[in-house]
Design goal:
coiled coil, 974 residues, transmembrane helix, 4-stranded antiparallel beta sheet, Tscrpt_reg_LuxR_C, 13 helices, elongated, Methylamine Dehydrogenase, Chain H, alpha+beta, Immunoglobulin-like, membrane
Length: 974
C-alpha cells in the first residue's frame, strides 16, 4: 500500500510540475522527411526561420521557400537570382536575406506577394565583389550580413563595411555579443562596428570553429574536424564526449542548443548527434534510422518544439518534443509488432516474421551500435504472443508453443496454432494455452513446462482468454460472443459452459473482448465497457468506465500497469486512466494521438514495465512512451489562406505568396480591394494550418458568410470552391483542428461581388431614362393614335348610323313582309277552314238531300199504296235508312280525309298518341278542333246534348287531363 501511495504522489508531482521538454534518449523521435520531389525546388537548403504567425521559411538554392503545412512555394528571389544562404526575421516579419553576391530584405504585400529589396545598391562599387552571405543576424538595431570577404552592417539605410586581409572564417552570435573568427587574427569581438581581438585570440586561429555556446563552464566550441572544446579563463581544453569518434570523423557543420543543456550537432557525413551537458550521447539520427540525408546545414526549433533540419538534400522535421519514439535499430527490418516483452534485460518483439530480441540496457543507454534486433532461430512464422511464466519465456506461434533460451527456441507443444497463455488460478504450475481450435494444458515439472493434453469439450478459437479468482475461464470469440468455462477436477475436460451474447445484455455479439483489471473481469464492446451483474447474470455498463470512456466507442483494449494506471484503446484513441490523490480519476489521451490508425486491427497491444516504460506494438514498428516526457498540447496556432483565385478567367489569382504570379510593377503596399466583377463570381480558396505535428491529420472547417448559414463539418479538405455567387459582400472564414483537438485562430478573406452590368446603379439610371423616353413616346404615340381613332370613330359612327338606318328600314320592311305573310297565312288558314266547313256542309247537304230524296220516294209510295202492311213496311225501311245513315262511316271517312289535310293529320296524330279513343270520340274531337259547340255537335253525332257532355267527359279521362283543363284548348293546341 505504501508503494502504491508513493507512486501516486510521484505521478501527481509530475502532473503538477511537468518536466521541461527535451529530446528522448530511448528510441528515435518521429521524423517527417520532405524531399526535393515533395517541395519541387533545389535539393540544397541552408537556413530555416519561422515568422510570428508560424509560417516556415527555408533558404533554398532557388530562393526563399515557404511551407504552410500543406503547400510549398518559392516566394521570392534575390535580384541576381542567386541561391539564398541565410535569413533573419524581425518582430514585424520583415525577412533579411543573405544570398550569393547579394543581400537585402523582403516583406509580404497585402496581396500575399513577397517583394524583395536589394541593399547592395547602398554599397560603394569597390565593396560589391563578395561571395556567399553565410550569416544574417539582427543584433540590437542593426542588421549584420556576413561573408568570407566582408561584413556588412546595415543601419538607418546606410551600410558600413568591415574587411579582412586574409578573409573571415565564421560568424557567431553568443548571448548579446557578436564574435567573428579571422584566419589570421583568431577570435574577434564586434564592438561599436569595430572588430576587437579578445585576449589570446590567436589560439582560435585555424580551429575552424563552426559554433560557439556560452555555458556555465565557459565557451563551448564546436570545431569542424577536431571535436568540441571548452574555453574558460583563457584556457582551452578538449570537451570529451561519447560521440567524439563520430564528431571528428564526420565534420561538424552546424549546432543548436536544446533545452536542459542538450546540444544538437549537425555533421556533414553522419547526420544529427545529440549530447547532454556532460558529453553523454543521447541520440544519433542518421540516414540508417530515418534521416534522408547525412549532410546537416542548419537547425531551427519551431513553436511546438519540433526541430527542423535543413540538409544538403532535403528537409527533415524531427519531433523531439514528443514523449513517443520508435524503437529502431540500424537494420530497421521489422514492422508489424503483435507483442513485446522485456525478459532478463532483453527486449523481445513478436512479429509476422518471427521473434526478435535486442539488449535493452545497451539500447536505452545509447549503445546503439551493438544493440540490434537479432532473430530467434527456429521461429519464422507469425508469433502472436510472448510472455514470462514462472522462470520461462514462452512464445505462442502458428506452429505451437516454444520456450526461448538465449538465441534459440525449443518447441514444447506442437499444436495447430497457439494464441496466448494464462496461468490457472490457484495452480501456478498449470498453464492454459488458447489455440486455433481449443484449449491446451501445460504443466511446470522441475522448472520446465511440459505439454499435457488438449482440453476436451471446447473446440472454439481462443485468442482472447482470461481467468477470474473463482477459477472460471473467460474466452471472447470475435463474432460469436463470450464463453465462460469451468473445468473438471482433472483439468482434462470442460465441466460446464455458459454463453453470453447480445441476448444477455451486450449491445452486439460482434467484436467482444474480455479483460482482467484489478482481479475483475470486464468486457469490451462496440458501445463501451460492460461487466456482469452478479445477481441477474446480465451484462451491464460499468459506471466508472462509462464516465471516462463513454458508451459510444469500441473498446479494443484495457490493461493495468505496475502503477495501477489503466491503459485503453477506445475507438481510434489510446489513453490511460490515472487515479489522482483525491480518489478521482483522470483520462489522458493527447500524448497518444499519434498512435491513431497505427495498430494492427484486432491485435492492439500495450506492454508496460515496472520502470515506467510503455511499449505499443503497431504496424509501423515498436513505439516507446516515456511518462516523464512532457509536451504542451494546447499551443496556439493559426490557419492561413494560402491562395485565392478566380476560376473565370482561368486561374486569375487574387491572393497568393507564390513567386511572380501576381503583377506588382510599382511595389505598392496599398491594400488591394477585393472587389470582383460579376464575371469573376467563381472563387477557389486554398488554406492550411501552421501546425506541423502530423499536419496531414489536421482537419478544417469553413464558412462563407453571406452565402452559407454556418460552419461546415470538419474534413481533411484544404481547398474549397464556390461558383455562381450572387452579388453581395462576403467573408470567407476557415479554421483548423489538429490531432490534439486544439482549434486554431481563424483566417478570413473579405470580398465583394459586384452585380452584373445590367443590375448596377448606372444600369438602373439608364433603365429609368429609357423607361421615361419610352413612356413619353408611348404617350405621344397613343395621343396620335387616339386622334386618328377618334376621327375614324366619328366616320365609323356616321357610317354605322347610315348602316343602322338602312338595316332598320330593311328590318321594318322585313317585319312588314313577315306580318303580311302571317296575315296571309292566317287568312289562308281561315279560308281553308271556312272552305272545309263549306265543303263539309256541302257534303252533308248533298248527302242529306240524297237521304231526303230517298225518304220522299218512300213517302210517295206510301201515298199510292194505302195498304197498311205495305205502308208499315215502307216506314220500316225509312226508319232503317235513317239509322243506317246515322251509323254509317262512308261519309265520315270522306270528311276525315279532308279534315286531316286541313289540320296536319290531326286525326292520325291523336289516334297514335291516344289509341283508347273510339271513332265517335275521334269525331267529337274533330268537331272540337273545328271549334263547334255542344249544341252544334249533338245533331252531327245524332245524340242529345247530354250525350255530347258525357262523351266529352269520357274523352277527358282518356286524355288524362286535370279537372281544371279546357279540353277544347287542348284539342286546338294539339
Amino acid at each position: 500500500m505504501t508503494k502504491f501511495i508513493i507512486r501516486i504522489l510521484v505521478l501527481s508531482l509530475l502532473l503538477v510540475f511537468p518536466v521541461k521538454a527535451q529530446i528522448k534518449k530511448i528510441g528515435v523521435p518521429f521524423i517527417t522527411n520532405y524531399s526535393p520531389k515533395t517541395y519541387k525546388a533545389a535539393s540544397e537548403n541552408w537556413d530555416v526561420i519561422q515568422d510570428s504567425k508560424g509560417m516556415m521559411f527555408f533558404a533554398n538554392h532557388f530562393g526563399i521557400m515557404q511551407f504552410d503545412g500543406v503547400r510549398w512555394n518559392i516566394v521570392t528571389q534575390p535580384d541576381n537570382r542567386s541561391m539564398v544562404r541565410s535569413m533573419a526575421i524581425d518582430k514585424n516579419d520583415k525577412i533579411y536575406v543573405g544570398a550569393q553576391g547579394d543581400f537585402g530584405y523582403t516583406m509580404q504585400l497585402p496581396n500575399g506577394q513577397y517583394q524583395y529589396t536589394s541593399l547592395v545598391k547602398l554599397l560603394p562599387a569597390a565593396a560589391r565583389n563578395f561571395g556567399d552571405v553565410l550569416h544574417t543576424v539582427i543584433h540590437k538595431n542593426e542588421i549584420i550580413f556576413f561573408s568570407y570577404e566582408e561584413i556588412f552592417i546595415y543601419k538607418n539605410n546606410k551600410i558600413k563595411v568591415l574587411k579582412s586581409k586574409t578573409n573571415f572564417d565564421d560568424f557567431f552570435e553568443v548571448g548579446k555579443k557578436i564574435y567573428v573568427t579571422d584566419n589570421e587574427k583568431g577570435l574577434l569581438e564586434l564592438k561599436e562596428d569595430q572588430l576587437v581581438p579578445i585576449k589570446d585570440s590567436e589560439k582560435f586561429a585555424g580551429l575552424q570553429i563552426r559554433k560557439i555556446f556560452k555555458t556555465k563552464k565557459g565557451f563551448l566550441l564546436f570545431t569542424q574536424k577536431q571535436g568540441l572544446f571548452i574555453y574558460e579563463e583563457n584556457q582551452m581544453k578538449p570537451f570529451v564526449t561519447e560521440a567524439d569518434h563520430l564528431l571528428k570523423q564526420n565534420q561538424i557543420s552546424a549546432g543548436i542548443q536544446l533545452s536542459d543543456g542538450y546540444f544538437g550537432i549537425g555533421t556533414r557525413q553522419s547526420g544529427l548527434i545529440v549530447i547532454d551537458s556532460s558529453g553523454h550521447l543521447i541520440q544519433h539520427i542518421n540516414k540508417q534510422i530515418g534521416l534522408q540525408n547525412e549532410y546537416v546545414t542548419n537547425f531551427k526549433r519551431d513553436k511546438e518544439g519540433n526541430l527542423w533540419v535543413t540538409l544538403k538534400g532535403g528537409i527533415s522535421q524531427i519531433q523531439i518534443s514528443s514523449p513517443l519514439s520508435k524503437i529502431i535499430d540500424n537494420s530497421n527490418a521489422e514492422t508489424k509488432i503483435y507483442c513485446s516483452q522485456i525478459y532478463q534485460n532483453k527486449l523481445y518483439i513478436a512479429t509476422d516474421n518471427g521473434l526478435f530480441w535486442l539488449d535493452w540496457d545497451d539500447y536505452k543507454n545509447g549503445k546503439r551500435e551493438n544493440a540490434n534486433f537479432k532473430h530467434i532461430s527456429g521461429m519464422t512464422e507469425n508469433v502472436w504472443n510472448v510472455g514470462v511464466f514462472g522462470n520461462s519465456l514462452l512464445a505462442f506461434e502458428k506452429n505451437g508453443i516454444f520456450e526461448i533460451n538465449g538465441n534459440a527456441a525449443k518447441a514444447i507443444a506442437k499444436i495447430d496454432g497457439a494464441w496466448k497463455g494464462v496461468l490457472v488460478p490457484n495452480h501456478s504450475d498449470l498453464l492454459l494455452a488458447g489455440g486455433y481450435t481449443g484449449l491446451y494444458l501445460l504443466k511446470n515439472i522441475n522448472g520446465t513446462w511440459v505439454y499435457q493434453h488438449k482440453i476436451k469439450g471446447f473446440d472454439e478459437s481462443s485468442r482472447i482468454i482470461e481467468t477470474d479468482k473463482e477459477g472460471n475461464i473467460w474466452i471472447a470469440h470475435g463474432y460469436k460472443g463470450i464463453f465462460k468455462l469451468k473445468f473438471n477436477p482433472a483439468f482434462d475436460a470442460v465441466a460446464s459452459i455458459e454463453f453470453y451474447n447480445d441476448k444477455n445484455g451486450f449491445p452486439s455479439s460482434l467484436f467482444l473482448n474480455v479483460f482482467k483489471i484489478h482481479d475483475e473481469i470486464l468486457f469490451g464492446t462496440t458501445k463501451g465497457v460492460y461487466r456482469q451483474n452478479t445477481a441477474s447474470k446480465k451484462m451491464i455498463l460499468d459506471p466508472i468506465f462509462k464516465k471516462y470512456l463513454g458508451q459510444e466507442n469500441h473498446i479494443r483494449l484495457l490493461k493495468a500497469d505496475h502503477q495501477d494506471n489503466i491503459w485503453y484503446v477506445s475507438g481510434e484513441n489510446t489513453g490511460r486512466i490515472i487515479e489522482t490523490r483525491n480518489r478521482n480519476f483522470q483520462a489522458e489521451e493527447l500524448p497518444f494521438r499519434k498512435l491513431r490508425y497505427l495498430y494492427i486491427p484486432g491485435f492492439e497491444n500495450i506492454q508496460t514495465t515496472s520502470d515506467g516504460d510503455v511499449f505499443f506494438g503497431t504496424q509501423d514498428g515498436l513505439i516507446h512512451y516515456s511518462a516523464v516526457k512532457s509536451k504542451k498540447y494546447a499551443t496556439k496556432y493559426r490557419t492561413v489562406i494560402s491562395e485565392v483565385k478566380s476560376i473565370f478567367p482561368k486561374d486569375s489569382l487574387l491572393f497568393s505568396s507564390r513567386y511572380d504570379v501576381l503583377p506588382n510593377k510599382t511595389g505598392s503596399l496599398k491594400k488591394m480591394p477585393a472587389v470582383l466583377s460579376y464575371s469573376n463570381n467563381a472563387l477557389h480558396f486554398s488554406f492550411a494550418s501552421l501546425f506541423f505535428d502530423d499536419a496531414e491529420a489536421t482537419q478544417y472547417e469553413y464558412w462563407l458568410e453571406g452565402f452559407e448559414p454556418g460552419w461546415s463539418d470538419y474534413s481533411l479538405q484544404t481547398e474549397k470552391e464556390y461558383t455562381n455567387l450572387p452579388e453581395n459582400e462576403y467573408v470567407f472564414h476557415v479554421r483548423a483542428k489538429n490531432i490534439y483537438d486544439v482549434v486554431s485562430e481563424e483566417a478570413v478573406f473579405s470580398f465583394k461581388v459586384l452585380p452584373p452590368w445590367y443590375r448596377t446603379v448606372w444600369a438602373y439610371i439608364l433603365y429609368f431614362l429609357l423607361y421615361s423616353v419610352v413612356i413619353y413616346l408611348i404617350v405621344k404615340y397613343q395621343k396620335s393614335v387616339a386622334g386618328r381613332q377618334r376621327q375614324q370613330l366619328i366616320e365609323n359612327q356616321e357610317i354605322e348610323l347610315l348602316r343602322s338606318r338602312a338595316e332598320l328600314n330593311e328590318q321594318r320592311l322585313t317585319l312588314e313582309q313577315e306580318n303580311m305573310n302571317i296575315m296571309r297565312e292566317n287568312l289562308e288558314a281561315t279560308i281553308n277552314l271556312k272552305n272545309a266547313k263549306v265543303a263539309s256542309n256541302a257534303v252533308n247537304m248533298i248527302h242529306l238531300n240524297e237521304i231526303l230524296l230517298s225518304i220522299k220516294e218512300l213517302i210517295t209510295q206510301i201515298d199510292k199504296k194505302n195498304d197498311a202492311n205495305v205502308n208499315f213496311s215502307l216506314l220500316t225501311k225509312i226508319n232503317k235508312l235513317i239509322d243506317h245513315e246515322l251509323q254509317g262511316d262512308k261519309h265520315w271517312n270522306e270528311f276525315e280525309e279532308i279534315f286531316n289535310q286541313l289540320h296536319d293529320n290531326f286525326m292520325q296524330r291523336l289516334k297514335s298518341s291516344y289509341p283508347e279513343l273510339t271513332p265517335r270520340d275521334m269525331r267529337l274531337c274533330a268537331y272540337l278542333r273545328m271549334n263547334f259547340n255542344t249544341k252544334e255537335i249533338a245533331p252531327l253525332l245524332g245524340i242529345s246534348v247530354r250525350g255530347v257532355e258525357d262523351t266529352r267527359y269520357r274523352i277527358r279521362k282518356k286524355l288524362q287531363l286535370p279537372s281544371d283543363a279546357n279540353i277544347t284548348e287542348f284539342i286546338l293546341n294539339f
